[in-house]
Structure formats: C-alpha cells, structure tokens
Specification:
With 111 residues, this protein is mainly alpha-helical. It has six helices and no strands. Helix 2 (15-30) runs antiparallel to helix 3 (34-52) and helix 4 (57-72) runs antiparallel to helix 5. It is flat and about 40 Å long.
Length: 111
C-alpha cells in the first residue's frame, strides 16, 4: 500500500519508489520468495539507475542485494558479476578503501 501511495505522489520513476521496491524485495527474500524478490530488485535497479545514475550508492546497494539473492539461488557466476559491479559502484562513490567497496570485493572473491 505504501508503494502505491508513493507512486501516486511521486511518480513511478522517483528514486524513493526505487528504494521502496528494494526494501520490499529484501522482505520477500527473507520470506523465501526468491523469484518475486528478484522482480522487485530488478524494478528497483532500473528506477535507481534512471533517477540517480549508475554510480550512485543506492545502485550499488541494490546490485549487492541481487548478488546475495543470486548466490542463494546457486547462480555463483551471476553473484560474482554483481558483487564486482557493486564494488565498482562503491569505488566510484566512496573510494577504493571504503568498507563497502572492500566487502563487495571480498564477497566476489569468495565465489
């Protein structure tokens, strides 16, 4: 319901709507509804890239979340690619030595 209100008030491509899609996806993932979570993550990512640009931290966060989902689903190649992309986004946003950057790189290397 909150998503519908946000879409009506802000428009379907507002960054806050993208963040809400991401948050709903996290809940769905935690409930084990992995396919549905992926749909929400994909919507979040598309909106965030368009509204915020590809190097925004929120884009990195969503890619990181999708990577975790991919890993959980057994898609190690996809997870590794997405962790690496998240790391690149974090590097561009925060710098090479930031904990978010290093964590995403570590997650990718572990796969």
């Amino acid at each position: 319901k909150a998503l519908a209100i946000q879409i009506k008030a802000l428009g379907p491509e507002h960054a806050s709507v993208g963040n809400t899609y991401n948050n709903i996806a996290i809940v769905l993932q935690n409930q084990g509804k992995l396919d549905e979570a992926r749909e929400y993550y994909d919507k979040a990512l598309a909106i965030q890239i368009k509204a915020l640009g590809p190097e925004h931290a929120s884009v990195g966060d969503t890619k990181y979340n999708i990577a975790q989902l991919a890993e959980r689903q057994g898609d190690t190649q996809g997870a590794k690619r997405l962790f690496t992309e998240a790391a690149a986004t974090y590097r561009a946003t925060y710098g090479a030595e930031h904990p978010e950057t290093l964590d995403a790189l570590q997650q990718a290397a572990a796969l």
